[in-house]
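Quarterly update, task 2.4: cytidine-5'-monophosphate-bound model.
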Amino acid sequence: MALNWEQARHRLIVALDLSERAAILQLAASLASRVGAVKLGLEAFTGHGPALVSSVQELGLPVFLDLKLHDIPNTVERAAAACARLGVKMFTVHAAGGPAMLAAAVAGAAAGTPAGASPPAVLAVTVLTSLDERVLGRLGIAGSVAERVGAWAEMARECGCGGVVCSAQEAAQLRARLGSEMLLVTPGIRPAGAAVGDQSRVATPLAAVRAGADYLVVGRPITAAADPVAAAEALVAEIQASAR
Ligand code: C5P
């Protein structure tokens, strides 16, 4: 499906994994018309709290709050409601928390959503890309990473989650297994020829889009670029070209 520039840029989420509030907001402001949303993670939220979420939203940018909630269902339900009250576009929970916890997150997100607004998408994180089959075995979890990702993604769908976070390598398999309703959000995106950094399962924007990813999460290729605006624009152009 061909995308115009606006449609393509809405699929780009910039991960602002920076510690300084001023630096986060400065970068968010300069990228406001070049990306679709900002991902704020544990470092930024722990350091600067809900006020930072509001400040980013005031720039006209939706927020993806990546806190990877994982606790007993009641606690996650209440935290999910708090995420929804902040008006975020999407937030994450760990699929490993189990079906009751996932369903509680979905219920909490709906309960906390202000009247007339859409609830945030609850995204399940399946197997962290920092884990491999050997570590899963040490945790007492049998089978391959791919099997676990597929099974947990299906569980997330059954519990009402709106999507999953996955590597682009897993996206095609998950798209086939989950159908078109679930959002696939893929980090580990590197423009062709870019530094891989500490990511292991990386993909180009072209590969991610072709594999069925709805949103591409990109951090350092934008934030550490000499010209972050140009880097974001190049990524949007790459997403646009890939969707043809
Ligand atoms: O800088 P980089 O593009 O590698 O940033 C990717 C972002 O996506 C980071 O915020 C990272 O925490 C997050 N992420 C990831 N892999 C996952 C889940 C989240 O890289 N499996």
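Highlight for this quarter: The first strand starts at residue 12 and ends at 15.
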